[in-house]
Amino acid sequence: MFNRLKRLFSPSNSGEARLCSLLRQYRDELPSPSARNDHQKCLSVLASILDFGFQGRSPIPNLAAYATDSCLFELACYVLSSTDFWAFNKAPDKRQKIQQILFAQLDAICSRSGFLPAEAAFSFANDRVGMYGRIASQSSGMEGLHLRLNQALKHATTHSLPPAHIDDVPPIFGDPFEALGVTKALVRWEMHRLSDMDSILCTIS
Q: Contact, 190 vs 142, CB < 8 A?
């Protein structure tokens, strides 16, 4: 499996943003919010990752390094964890359904785009959702979550292949001003995304 992953992330493939393109296509094809079924509502939640690091379809200059498939994958895993936390607290009866849909959608988009083989995204995302869940249950709150996500994104800017276990990635101490800029961008993205997510998920049957 590792050799297959390695071939997928060869230099000729690494810059194509295939996951980003396919997810953007799916979001563009969504019907109006009032006409969406549960699967389409979940897809719109997942597609919120396209709102970080981009202005429309163009990367934001100071976040251009983070507008990659690898970074989008890490953001998607964070979104899965966030929706799980939301469902656990606000709609436990919907929790299993929402997570099943989102995990299946992420795995399908990753495999159809060629970003990861089938079932790899499911496994990698499950590892990350567990990690973020542990952080969320601690006293560090959003600050701790954003710190870990910031480090995961920084790692993703220099590695095309997501690690199977995110806990294997050591803490990264880079430019503090860059890290602060990314954290501020994450906070802005989070505030808008959480408001949308709450209004969308509460309508899922």
A: yes
